[in-house]
Amino acid sequence: MKKFLRGSIIILFCLCLPATLMAQDYLSEAQALFDQGGVDNLKQAGDLYLKYIEANPNSYEAHWKAAQAYRNYGDEANKAQVEGWKGICKEYGNKAMALAEKATEIEPDKVEGYYFYGLSVAVYSDGTGIMTAIREGLKGKTQSSLEKAYEIDKMYNDGGPMIALGRFWFVLPGIAGRDVDKSVELLREFQQNFPDDPEGQIYLAESLMKKSKKQFGDEAKGLLEKAVQNGDADQKAKAEKLLKKL
């Protein structure tokens, strides 16, 4: 009887082992695709993370990384203006939100789930329009998620929670509670920690211009000129466009 039980256990182990190894392959392949970047690779990375989640439904890492991949997929589709990008942002922003929210349930004291939830709402809003997202009640959840990420580790992802929360307070329409003062405060904090980041320079300049071109115009101009010098093509174009408004 004991020999039979031992044999059964060995057989069960051998049957389960290939599935376990396959799941690990999904994880490593997904990470490799994510690291390569590009619209198609990001979608494939998210799909592979989902396959890993099927075998490991309580994996915190797979949930937040899937959210990150799908969020980036929508964001890159938007930047590249691929056909149907709004539908991509809506669908995959929504998927990313659900995955990130599940991550916060699995590990409520870790930063990634909250952070990528907030970023995923932004992508979803690119597809649906910000007023639709607000009507769906996402403003409060986005704010609380980004504030939680800031509280846990504001330096995560090169200060991601700082710049994301600062931008959040700027992009809200006035009727939804835009707060330019909060935006400037957070983006100044980001700028102090990451003074050479072009995105931070652009966002702070834009918030300062909204606050008062007369009072902060010179500071905004200096920030935008730095962004033109150091940013990528998209950042340079955005900075140059804002400079024309000063």
Radius of gyration: 21 Å
Secondary-structure element series:
HHHHHHHHHHHH
Count of DSSP strands: 0
Largest sheet: none
| Oligomeric state of shown chains | single chain
Overall pLDDT metric: 91
- CATH topology group of the largest domain: Serine Threonine Protein Phosphatase 5, Tetratricopeptide repeat
Shape field: globular
Q: Helix segment count?
A: 12
Strand content: under 5%
Number of domains: 2
In CATH, the architecture of the largest domain is Alpha Horseshoe
What helical percentage do the residues reach? over 70%
Low-confidence runs (pLDDT<50, min 5 residues)? 1-17
Q: How far is the first residue's CA from the last residue's CA?
A: 85 Å
The CATH class of the largest domain turns out to be Mainly Alpha
In CATH, the homologous superfamily of the largest domain goes by the name Tetratricopeptide repeat domain
Task: Please identify the structural class as seen in this structure.
Answer: mainly alpha
